[in-house]
Design brief:
44 residues; mainly alpha; 1 helix; 0% strand
Length: 44
Amino acid sequence: MGLNKSISAERYACYKIQQLYAMEVLKNFENCHFQRKLWIEKAL
């Protein structure tokens, strides 16, 4: 029982980290996209 619990806790931690990472990546992607739009508008 103890082993199973620690494995699922580890999986859960992994899952949470992946979620946070994915959210950061999306945020960075949106910022990047937004910045590029601004640069293009400035250039025109």
